[in-house]
Amino acid sequence: MTQYKEIKAEILAIGDELLYGQIMDTNSHWISQELDKIGVRVVRRTTVGDNRDAMLSAFESAEKIADIILITGGLGPTNDDLTKPLLAEYFNCELALVPEALEAVRTFFEKRGRELTDTNKLQAHLPTKCIYIPNELGTAPGMWFQENGKIWMSMPGVPHEMKRLMSDHVIPRIKENFTLPHIYHKVIKTVGIGESWLSDLIQNWEKNLPKHIKLAYLPSLGQVKLRLTAFGDDMDQITNDVENEITKVKPLIDKYIFGYNQETLEEAIGRLLRTNGKKVAFAESCSGGYITHLVTTVPGSSDYFQGSMVPYHNHFKNKLLHVDQNTLKEHGAVSEATVIQMAENIKTMFEADFGLASSGIAGPGGGWKEKPVGTVWIACAMNGKTITKKLQLTQDRMLNIQLTGVAVLNMLRLCIEGKTE
Amino acid sequence: MTQYKEIKAEILAIGDELLYGQIMDTNSHWISQELDKIGVRVVRRTTVGDNRDAMLSAFESAEKIADIILITGGLGPTNDDLTKPLLAEYFNCELALVPEALEAVRTFFEKRGRELTDTNKLQAHLPTKCIYIPNELGTAPGMWFQENGKIWMSMPGVPHEMKRLMSDHVIPRIKENFTLPHIYHKVIKTVGIGESWLSDLIQNWEKNLPKHIKLAYLPSLGQVKLRLTAFGDDMDQITNDVENEITKVKPLIDKYIFGYNQETLEEAIGRLLRTNGKKVAFAESCSGGYITHLVTTVPGSSDYFQGSMVPYHNHFKNKLLHVDQNTLKEHGAVSEATVIQMAENIKTMFEADFGLASSGIAGPGGGWKEKPVGTVWIACAMNGKTITKKLQLTQDRMLNIQLTGVAVLNMLRLCIEGKTE
């Protein structure tokens, strides 16, 4: 990619409502994704309020670091919307009526059987240096500027209007104006190992990565994503380069890889169960239905998910899940003996191939010396054998529920794949 | 409040994954809301990648415009994380081992029965000019700097770790260090009514709100929050003003109010069940354990939550939940007759005062002309009677699961409060 000049973009979001946290800025996130797809590198995103000085200095600063500046917001007809006058000031030109734009606004209101107000007519007054870009879904037009080899585009903050302008006008025009590098991303999704242990396992491979491939660790609850990104002039070449590196790293961490790119752990579980023609059921105590919820968010999960029970008290673990009274008395609900029976019984009741169980102390209350908050037993019963695992988690209830969920789904994955020790 | 110097903040988010659009930056949005609540004005939000020059110039620029600079991300133990070394460079100091921090990391791993790696030990090396802020939920410590009257705080990008650090340390320390305007917020939480209907009901009250009280509608899934915000010099005065307005508006929307401020719907349910000494159980089909999950996220829910069953197929609805074969044959699983039996049987099995049931077509598949995707029946069985409701929801599976959850919990709330028609 060295022969390419990297094309850099900054995304500017304008609006007090963003800075006050009243509206979440999903626009900048979406634009980042769209630019990433075509190999434009977003180098910064900035959000400023409806404020003259803040906006003008954001314009200046953006022009210094970016080839493309995409602006959303501040285009309403009201006085607190400053983007248009300030762009005119910044590019040192006047606002003038654009008949085509006025016609568009008029039509927009006619279609809705509404009268055109003077305030709305003002929306057809645009900086003389900009190219008018029609906004079919709203009244604030897009404005395209080209100055000193830099491209500026101002768009309304309303997401569906902005998205239409991006797809129909901005992306195609960017492709016309710049020679863009090819870019290839692949994400390896791992579970059951922390970021630092993962990096210890693959450090030699990481050291030897070719210069045009970048590695990023993206940790989330109980999972770590490894993102490989390659830039180059030949798409097939960089795709092969990345896939080759994945072939090299896979054996080092094979046991922890559950999928690639967008696939979630629960989707991977679904894929494995479906392809193996197996069914699953869950007996959840401390995880309180969370695992079942994850599994059933996947479309088509009814093909392999049989059902679940959440017996939250010993009485019901015995009465409805048929866990032996004495086992509960002698070992307690949070014990290996109990989760084994929970897993085996739920498997039988729901006629499943795999029965999984969780029992633990989610907290914040209920812990004691021998079994502190965060103590969790999980089990997976399958034909022939039942495996168990003890987890020592955190003091945080929600975190304990989520981490138990990840651990149980990972245990199921390893059982289906026959990767258990 | 004019007598106060306005305290300005910039929020810096660090990470290529944000600029690539692979992770949505929800942190900056959340931090904006928290700062807004205490009267700190967020003047800019900036996102830059894991890049030395970009980060250093973001630091410089932030120091020029803000009194408080809050930084998230770039704190992992791996090589692509630069925040810590660059802060040391920016503040012109060394990284040195902080024994307290090392102890915290060690304990964090011991609790999980894991060995401390060298990579992890590095996380205890901090810039000598920073105050070490312990992160109970992760291994990357918070770092607090105070230089030339400006405050800097660096936090991990993992949302739950950042939120804990903000609530326990950053917000209190900001209040200590600055004189902030008096602000009183109160949020009225409603469920079961749309934003526009709500605004119709309260429009006259809203028109007559005193100038120093601002009203914001904050809609979320199936719920609408009404946030009243008063600014002033006298805290008692503005508190009374807001409470007076709430006394006025309450009768207009009483049936829809489930709580105030931070209380969630599932927490309100828990409060109502506990104070009334009642127990609850759920039979979930289309909601797939989601309702049970919500209820069990609340600490102490074992006091009133008995248990749940998720029988995902007719066979198990009959075999394990004892729904009549003929009912299932004649009316189908998604029918009033079926949810009535599901609710009444789960109530009996789990010896509860309230038995709730959901059965519907979450989608995307499984719908047909008479029962399109989004058709959901819900029921609540209590002593003496069972009430039902039919919902026509969306085409989106996840949305249907969530909206069913809100509808069932709201039905339970109205039953406990005796507010059902």
Automatic annotation (TrEMBL), chains A, B:
<dbReference type="InterPro" id="IPR050101">
    <property type="entry name" value="CinA"/>
</dbReference>
<dbReference type="InterPro" id="IPR041424">
    <property type="entry name" value="CinA_KH"/>
</dbReference>
<dbReference type="InterPro" id="IPR036425">
    <property type="entry name" value="MoaB/Mog-like_dom_sf"/>
</dbReference>
<dbReference type="Pfam" id="PF00994">
    <property type="entry name" value="MoCF_biosynth"/>
</dbReference>
<comment type="similarity">
    <text>Belongs to the CinA family.</text>
</comment>
<protein>
    <recommendedName>
        <fullName>CinA-like protein</fullName>
    </recommendedName>
</protein>
<dbReference type="Pfam" id="PF18146">
    <property type="entry name" value="CinA_KH"/>
</dbReference>
<dbReference type="InterPro" id="IPR008136">
    <property type="entry name" value="CinA_C"/>
</dbReference>
<dbReference type="InterPro" id="IPR036653">
    <property type="entry name" value="CinA-like_C"/>
</dbReference>
<feature type="domain" description="MoaB/Mog">
    <location>
        <begin position="10"/>
        <end position="177"/>
    </location>
</feature>
<dbReference type="Pfam" id="PF02464">
    <property type="entry name" value="CinA"/>
</dbReference>
<dbReference type="InterPro" id="IPR008135">
    <property type="entry name" value="Competence-induced_CinA"/>
</dbReference>
<dbReference type="InterPro" id="IPR001453">
    <property type="entry name" value="MoaB/Mog_dom"/>
</dbReference>
